[in-house]
Backbone:
């Protein structure tokens, strides 16, 4: 056999052209091979794994379609590395299925086809023994190469055909027009959408010149062709230039907008541009409409906002204007109240006074509300002691609470900073609103303020949480959402019973939000309400914390044990926590008999008890203690309402080592306890009693007429309360103009003048008052800013001193102590001058 000739024939007769599947190609090639090699059969084995193979196809002989074990596998698989193996003497010792196949031939050649995805083996078998030479080996080598080459080409060809048909299908169906233009000017191509866009007869390949002309025509049909042509010229000048989101507008037919993008295609064999046109008319029009709508909406919102602001400003101004005559109405009514009137007239005046008061509260609420709504409320930022705010809130409302025999309590966790920087007035306003609501809607029990550190924030900031909890009527869960809405009162019958504007909580919410916090509520009907709110503020290093350690030091090492007696369980628990902080252990009793029962057996260093314990009132209880302790003289501290204390005789007062007024203030209480413990002796009792009562310095020592000009309602309430505690009655006005008017009609010795007030500010009012005032009138500026510039301005306006806000009772007392003698001396000099 001329194997060389057969090799050439094999190459000629095998080709994949016109063949659609690899299987056909193999079958055809195997057939040619059988003929040319004059073999009896060819078998294609697909290797599945190391020890099994499958007969894929065969020629010359049919085999069962079986999985066979091609062992000796090692040997067989090794053939793949050698590309082919020729077995002249087929081993027949081991009987595998493959061996059986091999046995059926006398000579076999195995060719490894590794261009297929998985390895395959091609067996060529002869029934008669063959005698082969080198040229036969050459032939097999050629067959191996050719078969592998055909497989490789067919794999590429078939893959290409797959990809091509997929892309053709995509390009035929997509809604975008796709155009390709070859840079060489040899080829252009369009998909059907592009053909219809460019008015071309058919899709597919197209002469570039025709394509370019159609494209130019398309550009010229646009309404923005000038801009497009400039951009296009720029694009064509940069071969790698790409463009996206380029809109071409067409007037015909019926306003069409195309989104155009163009990207360069740069590969080794192909350089050109791919253009894509997408009809975005509906999106574009919708977008334009949306934009127009947005602009309109923005304008409308701005208009509504400004109208709203204007309304709020108008409301704020109106409220201010109404408040001025209302103050006169109330003022006059109280003057009238102090003139001789008959019973009926008295009732009329009282009605005017009470209604006037309600109206002013309402106006104040509306004023605050509209100020916040119109964005005119600016929060102050100055350091203040947190505990004082809580104490002042309870102080201001203590009369209302005492009238209803409610306890007012508070506890501040020790890790809460002593001083923070913020707006003390607004914080107090929120607390006042919540506590006064608590008192209003509670008939029995207590209102409790609890303060804790909710979170430490970066940059010396803290989030503080306040809880105001009452034991009152509570609020049904389905009403909670409505609660913080403007003008919302839950139940008209409740409103009639308790009064109110329905703005308090809405204002509180807005203020809390301005202070960086939030407000929420927990409440069950008939079980009480718990309002919680947070604020975010910086810690103030200027407020010196109340020195708990100092009190601890004073009582250190004494191992003190106190009995706390009170019929309010929460009060007892709160007190116990506070005593714990001072290092005093406590036994608590809500029943006086239980307390007395343990007395003979337990030695207490202190008895701290409520005045009204039902069976025993104050003094009787002390007597009982003495009786049961065989006169051990256990130090006693009574706590009671100021009203009850006032009614005590001197003899009764002398029974106790000290008396503390409710609401309890822990700083003072701590001091009293340490003093009581340290000065157990009889002689010190009276002094201790005196120490903790605020001695009015008032009218008896320095009789002064005082005017306060302050626009903030809460600050007015505070200063009025402070001055009345010091024994002074005071005239209050809400702006500079009212202050000027008041000073015209009455001679004042002291004028506390707020700096920032509406209508006329403090500086202007001070200047006018000082033009006509006598030397025994002293003006003191009330200011949150004590910068040297501010002080200079105040001095230039004629003011002689400053009181830094927030004010405390001690600050005011110190000012009166300082100015009282000066005013008296100036008065004396004035009368000497007048007499001489
Ligand atoms: P108002 O000035 O009328 O009290 P608020 O906004 O402060 O207005 O309160 C709105 C309503 O919420 C009240 O009328 C009352 O029905 C209810 N409310 C507020 N606080 C309490 C509370 N502590 N207990 C029960 N109900 C309350």
Residues:
């Amino acid at each position: 056999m001329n194997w060389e000739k057969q090799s050439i024939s094999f190459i000629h007769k095998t080709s994949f052209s016109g063949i659609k599947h690899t299987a056909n190609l193999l079958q055809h090639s195997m057939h040619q091979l059988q003929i040319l090699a004059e073999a009896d059969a060819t078998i294609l084995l697909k290797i599945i794994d190391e020890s099994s193979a499958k007969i894929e196809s065969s020629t010359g002989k049919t085999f069962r379609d079986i999985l066979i074990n091609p062992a000796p596998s090692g040997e067989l698989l090794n053939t793949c590395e050698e590309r082919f193996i020729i077995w002249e003497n087929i081993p027949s010792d081991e009987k595998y299925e493959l061996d059986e196949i091999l046995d059926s031939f006398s000579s076999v050649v195995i060719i490894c086809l590794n261009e297929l995805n998985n390895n395959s083996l091609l067996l060529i078998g002869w029934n008669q023994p063959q005698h082969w030479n080198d040229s036969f080996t050459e032939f097999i080598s050629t067959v191996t190469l050719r078969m592998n080459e055909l497989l490789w080409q067919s794999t590429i060809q078939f893959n290409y055909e797959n990809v091509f048909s997929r892309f053709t299908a995509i390009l035929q169906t997509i809604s975008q027009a796709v155009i390709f233009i070859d840079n060489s000017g040899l080829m252009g191509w369009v998909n059907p959408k592009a053909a219809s866009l460019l008015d071309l007869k058919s899709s597919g390949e197209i002469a570039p010149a025709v394509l370019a002309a159609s494209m130019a025509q398309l550009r010229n049909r646009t309404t923005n062709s000038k801009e497009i042509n400039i951009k296009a010229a720029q694009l064509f000048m940069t071969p790698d230039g790409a463009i996206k989101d380029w809109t071409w507008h067409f007037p015909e037919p019926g306003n069409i907008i195309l989104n155009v993008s163009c990207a360069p295609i740069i590969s080794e064999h192909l350089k050109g541009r791919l253009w894509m046109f997408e009809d975005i008319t509906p999106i574009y029009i919708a977008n334009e409409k949306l934009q127009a709508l947005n602009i309109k909406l923005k304008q409308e919102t701005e208009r509504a906002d400004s109208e709203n602001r204007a309304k709020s400003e108008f409301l704020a101004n109106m409220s201010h204007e109404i408040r001025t005559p209302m103050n006169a109405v109330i003022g006059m009514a109280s003057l009238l109240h102090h003139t001789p009137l008959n019973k009926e007239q008295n009732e009329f005046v009282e009605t005017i006074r009470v209604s006037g008061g309600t109206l002013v509260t309402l106006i104040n609420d509306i004023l605050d509300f509209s100020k916040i709504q119109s964005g005119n409320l600016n929060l102050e930022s100055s350091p203040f002691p947190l505990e004082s705010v809580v104490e002042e809130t309870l102080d201001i409302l203590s009369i209302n609470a005492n009238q209803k025999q409610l306890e007012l309590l508070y506890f501040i966790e020790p890790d809460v900073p002593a001083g923070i920087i913020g707006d003390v007035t607004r914080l107090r306003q929120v607390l006042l609103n919540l506590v006064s609501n608590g008192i209003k809607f509670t008939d029995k029990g207590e209102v409790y303020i609890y303060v804790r550190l909710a979170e430490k924030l970066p940059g010396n900031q803290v989030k503080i949480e306040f809880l105001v909890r009452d034991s009152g009527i509570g609020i049904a869960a389905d009403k909670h959402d409505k609660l913080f809405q403007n003008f919302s009162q839950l139940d008209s019958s409740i409103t009639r019973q308790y009064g109110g504007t329905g703005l308090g909580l809405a204002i509180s919410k807005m203020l809390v939000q301005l202070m960086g916090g939030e407000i929420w509520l927990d409440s069950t009907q008939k079980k009480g309400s718990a309002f919680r709110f947070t604020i975010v503020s910086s810690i103030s290093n200027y407020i010196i914390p109340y020195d708990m350690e100092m009190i601890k030091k004073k009582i250190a090492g004494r191992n003190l044990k106190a009995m706390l007696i009170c019929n309010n369980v929460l009060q007892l628990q709160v007190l116990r926590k506070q005593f714990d902080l001072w290092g005093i252990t406590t036994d608590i009793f809500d029943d006086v008999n239980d307390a007395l029962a343990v007395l003979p057996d337990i030695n207490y260093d202190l008895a701290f008890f409520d005045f009204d314990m039902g069976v025993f009132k104050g003094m009787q209880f002390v007597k009982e203690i003495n009786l049961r302790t065989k006169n051990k003289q256990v130090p006693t501290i009574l706590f009671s309402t100021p009203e009850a204390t006032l009614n005590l005789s001197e003899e009764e007062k002398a029974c106790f080592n000290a008396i503390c007024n409710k609401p309890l203030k822990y700083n003072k209480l701590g001091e009293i306890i340490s003093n009581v413990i340290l000065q157990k002796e009889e002689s010190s009792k009276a002094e201790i009693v005196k120490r903790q009562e605020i001695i009015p310095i008032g009218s008896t020592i320095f009789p002064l007429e005082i005017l306060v000009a302050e626009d903030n309602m809460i600050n007015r309430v505070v200063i009025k309360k402070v001055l009345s505690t010091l024994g002074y009655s005071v005239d209050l006005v809400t702006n500079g103009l009212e202050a000027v008017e008041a000073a015209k009609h009455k001679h004042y010795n002291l004028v506390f003048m707020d700096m920032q007030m509406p209508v006329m500010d403090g500086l202007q009012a001070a200047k006018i008052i000082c033009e006509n005032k006598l030397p025994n009138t002293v003006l003191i500026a009330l200011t949150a800013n004590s910068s040297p510039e501010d002080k200079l301005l105040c001095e230039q306006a004629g003011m002689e001193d400053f009181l830094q806000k927030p004010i405390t009772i001690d600050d005011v007392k110190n000012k009166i102590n300082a100015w009282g003698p000066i005013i008296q001396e100036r008065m004396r000099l004035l009368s000497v001058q007048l007499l001489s």
Remarks:
- Residues 433, 437-438, 441, 470, 472-473, 475, 483, 489-491, 494-495, 500-506, 529 surround adenosine-5'-diphosphate (CB under 6 Å).
- Confidence is low (pLDDT under 50) at residues 69-74, 76-83, 88-96, 681-696.
